[in-house]
Here is the input.
Amino acid sequence: MDPASNRCLAMARLALGAAVFLVIAAAAAPALAQNPEVRTTCNIHQGPCSAELAGRSVELEISPKPVKAMEELVFRVTISGDRLSEAPYIDLGMPAMKMGPNRVETARQGENTWTGKGVIVRCPSGKNTWFARVTLPETGTAEFVFDVVY
Amino acid sequence: MWSTESIYAVFLATGFTVGFGHCIGMCGPIVISVSLQLKDRPSFFPQLYYNIGRTITYSLLGAIMGATASFTRFASQAGGFQKAVLMFAGVLIIVMGAAMTGWVPAGRIFQNAPPLAGFARAGFKRILDARRAVLFLPLGMVLGLLPCGPVYTAMIAAARVGMEAESTLGGMLSGAGVMACFGMGTIPALLLLSQVSNVKWLKHRDLIYKFGGVMMILVGIYFTWKGWTY
Here is the structure.
């Protein structure tokens, strides 16, 4: 293949790369824009984190403490107000980068207390800020942002 | 959360989207290093084999997760090994970078290595001189063990699938399937990056190779340091 054809091929590759990137970015944009109703930054090692969501208080506690990555953790969600009909669930992720779907399913432990087990994974970049997005079906989503121990 | 059937599609899509974001940022330096190091040789098939190797390792990890139905058991024991793989990747990138600058001929890099390092020396030389694309398969298999957040997330899913399986074999196969789908999903992004980073068509590519070599050495040092502190 002559140099001009090689150059054309390389330019075509670049164009293809840029096109694919733009398509992916456009597809991902709505998902990234799905902000929770409430976002709270807290120190999860000191005690439960809490937030107000649609007139209810939502409290998240993670144990054992300090909260470490790569270990099995118990997530406890306590909600005030009327009894929830559906179980809340918790999505774990990093604000800085996508880590894939990591959902903690919960089961009822009391009137409005729910617990589930999950693992926060370790990011080799060293960044240790994570979020736990608590979703109350038919009510909304509260996001708790905290640092974990690596 | 998801049915066992739909989890395959979920993790294929996850691999695809994570590939274009996370993987390009974290594994991109390795992919670019391999592409640049190949210089005038075709890079598509070596990169394809590298990615297939990665996916094979993910599938094996998924099989272990599915069979044991536990992620934390792996996590408590694999830290040291993964640290070594991260440092290996760093040293490999440094060696590729040094060879690419042309300042240190590839053949001389390990000339004064102690005899005990013979195995490592042979392995590195084989990668640097690789003429057959299939030789990048074992490299991909080793580097598939690099510590990586989204891979861990897929492993957690594979372990959950294992919990729900009716037998150990069923869990093993389902876990392997989840991780295979995730791995396959990541291939388009890394393969595309490898082809885009091909600079054969550039007029002053010798300069690019030298610059790229220096960048690779710096990235390699960063990887080695990350491995050391992991």
